[in-house]
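Course assignment 3, question 2. Fill in each field.
Student: A.L.
Task: Predict the tertiary structure for the chain below.
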Amino acid sequence: MIFFAACAANQADLVAEEARKAGSEDVRQTSSGVEFDGSWETGMRFCLYSRVASRLLMALYIDEDTESDEELYESTLALPWEEWIDPDRTMKVSCTTQSCSWIRNSHYAALKVKDAICDRLKEKFDGRRPDIDTENPDISFHVHVYDRTVKWYADFSGEGLHQRGYRDEQTDAVLKEHLAAALICRSEWRKTAADGNPGLFMDPFCGSGTIAIEAALMASDTAPGLIRKKPYAFQTLPGFDEDLWNSLLDEARQRRQAALDERDIRIYASDISGRAIRIAKAAAARAGVDGLIDFSEKDFTAFTEKDVPAGPGFIVTDPPYGERMRVEDIDRLYTEIGRVLQSCFKGWRATVMTGDSSLLSNIDMKPDRTNSLYNGGILCQAAHYIIFTDEEKKALIERAKEKKRIRLSTPLSEGAEIVYRKIMKNLEALKGEMEKEGVTCYRIYDADIPEYAAAIDMYEGRWINLSEYAAPDWIDREEAEKHLNEIVYATERATGIDIENIYIKERKSQKGSAQYNRLATSNRFNIVKENGLMYLVNFQDYLDTGVFLDHRPVRKMIQEMAAGKRFLNLFCYTGTATLNAIKGGAVSTVSVDASSTYLDWAIENLKINGYPTDIENFFYRDDAISWLWETYDRYDIIFCDPPTFSNSKDRHTFDVQRDHWKLIKAAAMHLAPGGVLIFSTNFRRFRMDEGILERFSVEDITEKTIGKDFENDPNIHKCFLIRNKVKVSIPKKRSYRPI
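Answer field:
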């Protein structure tokens, strides 16, 4: 027999392991679940013990050459449905499709299958057919269509496997049972439980108790099927062996009793809400594990060492992250979680799950690893932390120092030595002038040696952003990897910046939405300084850090021009140009960008510099081109640095070479008399449209806006000053004659 176990995304490996433990020797993971072979006993054992799967189907028939809804009807009609159902029983039919061009509506396909089954049974039972019951049918059939392949299934499990039956009343934030089980299985505690010696377990944000209850079921080796309130669907299918089923139940009860007799189970659950604790206790009683969990009403942020059970142990928890809390409150909560973990739970392991991964940055610890899980439609992140003791921290620091000592004392390879000498030469040429100008963030190497193609930017003498230019396809990958390592070692040796603070990214052609994709979700920001201002930079989450170093002279120019002016920043990114306009004395600024992420970043940049974000300085989340056509205000200075290429849901693609003339004309409409548009682009082959050159006064100032650290790459950007031409009326010459 062939079974299919449905499960949430990213959990197929856990379900596959459950299938093997149920007795299957042929297990296959698919995009939506796990398919496995086995006997009736295998299927029943799987239903009884599965903690992570949501449903089990049993395959009845398969057809690999169906190409239309009529063929689907005929194929279904030809199958012996009388072996599974008779007219005295009710049924339900559902359908799913994947990569299928000939079915437009899965509900319609289900109706065709239902009609075929009923027609077949009417023929076999003198015109009689089963009734349809979508709520509580005697048997449910499911059809899955993939391209031309059709599989007919019978529902083997019935009501969702995750519905254990211990839930009644619940708190506002609900974690489904199978997700809680999956979260526990991803934690380090699960390994100790599987070995028969479960370690101390704690959930300090227990809510309605689901995580703690699932942990108690695992620790006591209680099969979820033992506490299930409703019968399984297989118990009403033809071929069901009740004696075999009863023997499986007896075996499960014996396993539970043996675990209770032999294991030391210590599970603690707490919550700040007394109502939540009452609900959790009642649920634990219905699950039969109330005697295994120590519930208490406590505020985790107020924990001290005396509130912590003798450990070390394991924390698995799902703190609040929903919209019911204010942003500042939720940020503060996660900051406090990190503080309490590090101060009170030294030597423990902690797994923290949240539906907003950005909150994890407030915990201020680096996860050992992470997992993605889905709670309904919400993508959640589970971060696993090792909370080191003071002795372990000291040992780690010493090991890191020793590794660095060995690394720095080891002679560089020939290639790394060449790169090292070049970086040192660049630093010697740049450092004096950069210090004289007060510049602390600048480029120190830009593919100066062709075989070592990377751009290296130094920030504040503390961090390196190393962008490796993608190697051509014909370059050997191992050789490219070797060159990258040599660049990294040479950079550390030349700058004295620890390798841990060298952030490596691969820079390649980005198009469409890919240019805005996040690389990570660390949400770790650092502060750098320039022109008397502070900027937030992020070295891990994005390809760019938040500051374009090549635009440093342009930003300085804006600051020098801005006194008493109205300033508009189009495609504002993180608002660095806006900051310089404010610093220079602009009377008002407007910043426009389609990305809420970058606008939030820009607002934070204003805040850390002490500038207001509600009056005088305005931010608009909008497509810059659309915004220009929909507004009428005029500005003395407009800065426009568009992307080379972008998509927008509100318009067609934007290509700076193709479309810059439209953008410049639209922006020029907003120039006040005497105003100037500063237009910049990083498209290296950019050529200004002839129509723009004729219609406007255009001054190419590119050479003036290239800093000394970018002199070896004068095409890093193009920059122009664009003004409306002044129309001068010359009076006609008139001749007069005497009267």
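Instructor remarks: The radius of gyration is 33 Å. The chain has four domains: 2-155, 177-220+263-387, 415-508, 526-724.
Grade: pending
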